[in-house]
Amino acid sequence: MRKRSIKNIRINSEVQRELGNIIRSEVKDPRISPMTTVVDVSVTPDLKYCKAYISVLGSEEEREATMAGLKSAEGYIRSRLAQSVNLRNTPEITFISDQSIAYGVHMSKLIDEVVSEIPEERRDETAADEEGWDGEEKD
After folding, report:
1. Among residues 70, 48, 66, which one has the least CA distance to residue 58?
2. pLDDT tens for residues 68-121?
3. Is 118 left (phi over 0), alpha (psi -120 to 50) or beta?
């Protein structure tokens, strides 16, 4: 099976969906933050190993505690994954911290701050320029 085959893409998305459900509803570890998201999953073509990219929205301490909780619950998560997804092999899961969502939120806040510093009348001029409108109607 090729690395980016249709079958592998389908397996990745199914494992991602099931991991999200298991982490959200079945793992009862108090260290795991409720703002935990499975961003991406990459299962090897031989179905032996899986990298799960996890994003935690919150502080650095919450992220570290969530990763430690997931690491300790790895066996339970793998057994629940084996019950819910019918694969020849149940992959060994490696949880990897992914900061892309937190980075996106941070960048969005920075952009909002810059936009709020622009005077209101200047914002109207900029919006009109971007739309290609100069204030007069064209026939």
Report:
1. 66
2. 999 999 999 999 999 999 888 899 999 999 887 778 888 999 999 988 888 777
3. beta
3-state secondary structure the chain: CCCCCHHHHHHHHHHHHHHHHHHHHCCCCCCCCCCEEEEEEEECCCCCEEEEEEEECCCHHHHHHHHHHHHHCHHHHHHHHHHHCCCCCCCEEEEEECCHHHHHHHHHHHHHHHHHHCCHHHHHHHHHHHHCCCCCCCC
Residue with tokens 């994954």: 81
Q: What angle do CA 12, 48, 32 make, to 5 degrees?
A: 65
